[in-house]
Amino acid sequence: MTTIRQFTADDLFRYNTINLDPLTETYGIDFYLQYLARWPDYFLVAESPSGDLMGEQKQPFNVFYLT
After folding, report:
1. Could you please report the per-residue DSSP string of 6-66?
2. Which InterPro entries does the entry link to (predicted)?
C-alpha cells in the first residue's frame, strides 16, 4: 500500500528518478530546499512499501502526481 507523507530534505537525494519525462522540469536542490522551508505542509511524497518514491506534490492543491 502506498503511503503519503511529508517530504524531507533527505528525499531530495532519491527524488530525480520521478521526473523522467523530458517535458517535466526538475530544479536544483537549492530551489527544493527553499520551497520545503517556506511551505513544508504543501510538500508531500508518495512512498511504496519497498521505500521507493512514487510521486510528489509541490502545491497547495488536492492534486497528486503519481508516476
Report:
1. E--GGGGGGTTTS--STTS----HHHHHHHHHH-GGG-EEEE-TTS-EEEEE-SSSS--EE
2. Acyl_CoA_acyltransferase, NatB_acetyltransferase_subunit
